[in-house]
Amino acid sequence: MQILLAAATTFEIQPTIDFLLNPDSVPSPPPHRLSFLITGVGSMATTWSFMRQIGRDRPDLIIQAGIAGCFTGKDPGEVVVVKEEIPGDLGVWEDQQFKTLFDLELTDADSTPFSGGRLVNPYRQLLTLTSLEPVKGITVNEITTHPDRIRWHQQNTAAVVESMEGGALHYVCLQENIAFLQLRSVSNAIGVRDKTKWNIPLAIDRLNQQLIQVIQQLDTKDKSVLEPTNQ
User: In this model, does residue 42 exceed pLDDT 90?
Assistant: First the structure.
């Protein structure tokens, strides 16, 4: 299969790139073709990068990996796989609550590719292959710091992690019928940006350990693992 490994920034997946480019690290010949894409930060850059790459060289599978903030108290370095994404700030904040596009009836919550207002990964075999905890995520343009917004997301989305690119992956791949995985490693708790409590080096180290394991697991699989199983 043809696998595209994507991240917002190079440093998030550099250890995996180094590993895969080392001829002593991978079988010869490799069972699958791997390529890399650095999308840039945010949903707009990510969507454009994915669509340009798909138009040039369509992959069978896209794996997006990166660090993330966490709503639920997980320790830095814990790695999860995102099973569904929610647009976290696409709507309006008024009357002390957030109203989504679906609440505002600007679009239907079940309009393709949404299901109940969520972007759900239907590739259960891939999610299981990671052996990671499957969680919900939200994607934002503005990183969440205000207590009211944090509380709202905790009560209404049940999101575990927050990123600025995950929703773009889910949206593009669901629209294009491309299998996908999103791996996230916790770097910090969501809230006041006290970077003394962050641990980005640990998050990146653990992320790449898991990412390499997933890729090695895929080495033993054929394209049957890319079939959607919950549609």
Answer: yes
